[in-house]
Design goal:
Helices cover 65% and strands 4% of the residues. By secondary structure, it is mainly alpha-helical. The protein has two domains: 66 residues, Winged helix-like DNA-binding domain superfamily/Winged helix DNA-binding domain (Arc Repressor Mutant, subunit A), CATH 1.10.10; 138 residues, GntR ligand-binding domain-like (Four Helix Bundle (Hemerythrin (Met), subunit A)), CATH 1.20.120. It has a three-stranded antiparallel sheet. A hairpin with a 3-residue loop joins strand 2 and strand 3. The protein is globular, with a radius of gyration of 19 Å. The model has no long low-confidence stretch (mean pLDDT 88).
Length: 229
């Protein structure tokens, strides 16, 4: 389950410490639920260093790298914060994601084996919307893993790299919105149709279904999400 506070474990010091700190912080930010509260989560250098068991210097360097990637923002005299996107920025990200994940679905039909595509059926863990709503946090995580798997099965290294930073915000916004206006019910239907198209190697249909699924998320955000205004 996504968390609103950052979770870290101590690292062993060695010559690749800077990279380890950077990767640990980026992974921890990926696991956070950025949009649970009204304010962006603050990243205190001293606290992060204590949790990782390192000095503040590699933490500061890692935060600088993450700021260059657009994941962290440093505000003078206030500190570093995880970036929370505005509603318009989120919509733009979803539109880009729709194009990229749609292309990923197309590539899945061309590059993935039948056995690999069958992996997606492992995420159809709930038979109906009532069961999904009863276990909404678990379904939310399953929903996210489903989309991660489509990207991975595209077997496009460049596409995977392009979606990596986008996914941090996509994951958070999906986790938040899946609980709203019974979106879990439509999600189950959409996922089933997507899997069927992928299994049948219906390239055009699979791409369209995945793209439309993301665009429906954008429409939901545009109409109903007020906490990003």
């Amino acid at each position: 389950m996504a968390r609103s506070s950052i979770t870290l474990s101590p690292l062993e010091e060695n010559f690749v410490l800077k990279d380890k700190v950077y990767k640990a912080l980026k992974e921890a930010i990926t696991e956070m639920d950025i949009y649970t509260s009204d304010k962006p989560p603050r990243l205190d250098e001293r606290t992060l260093g204590e949790k990782l068991g390192v000095s503040r210097t590699p933490v500061r360097e890692a935060l600088s790298r993450l700021e260059q990637e657009g994941l962290v923002r440093t505000i003078p005299r206030r500190g570093a914060f995880v970036v929370r996107k505005s509603k318009q920025e989120i919509l733009e990200m979803i539109y880009v994601w729709a194009a990229l994940e749609g292309m990923a679905a197309r590539l899945v039909t061309l590059n993935a084996t039948d056995e690999e595509i069958k992996e997606l059926r492992d995420f159809l863990t709930y038979d109906d919307s009532d069961e999904a709503r009863a276990h909404i946090d678990e379904y939310s995580e399953t929903n996210i893993q489903f989309h991660q798997t489509i990207i991975r099965l595209s077997k496009s290294k460049l596409l995977i790299e392009l979606t990596q930073n986008l996914f941090i915000h996509m994951k958070s916004i999906r986790a938040q919105t899946i609980k709203e206006r019974d979106r879990a019910s439509q999600s189950i239907i959409d996922h089933t149709r997507i899997i069927e198209a992928l299994e049948a190697r219906e390239t055009e249909l699979a791409e369209q279904l995945v793209r439309d699924h993301a665009l429906n998320l954008a429409e939901h955000v545009r109409k109903y999400v007020k906490y990003l205004d």
